[in-house]
Amino acid sequence: MANSKRDLFLKRRLRVRNKLRKNNVGKLRLSIHRSNKNISAQLIDDVKGVTLASASSLEKDLGIIGKNNVEAATKVGAAIAERAKKAGVEVCYFDRGGFLFHGKVKALAEAAREGGLKF
User: Fold this and answer.
1) Fold of the 5-114 domain
2) Mind telling me which residue stretches traverse the membrane in this protein (predicted)?
3) CA nearest 107: which of 51, 44, 30, 39?
4) What is the pLDDT of residues 30-66, one digit of tens each?
5) DSSP symbol at 61
6) Which residue among 3, 67, 81, 97 is least crowded, i.e. fewest CB within 10 A of its CB?
7) Could you write out the DSSP letters of every residue in 71-118?
8) Residue ranges covered by each domain of the chain
């Protein structure tokens, strides 16, 4: 029986996350989620199980509701970097989940780096 797209995505996400956790013990995780309509990012402390900062294209103050493009991802990346600085975070690791590192995911990562996050 062939694996579905969803099964392959979940395998890829777990493979990426497990490798990252093994190599980045004690660091905070910048986790992203991309749907067909929106993109969001969270800065997570896995030791405490707490989300320190988050940003999403659904937020009204970012002014990008209804836009699913690279511009929206760039604004979300800049917002998460700004909120991470307010929380006192400068270093984290980038958890792309099962998503490929191109397009909106890459735009979010580059905007977060430009905003001052190091990963």
Assistant:
1) Nucleotidyltransferase; domain 5 (3.30.420)
2) none
3) 39
4) 999 999 889 999 999 988 999 999 999 999 888 777 6
5) G
6) 3
7) HHHHHHHHHHHHHHHHTT--BEEEE-TTS-SSTHHHHHHHHHHHTT-B
8) 5-114
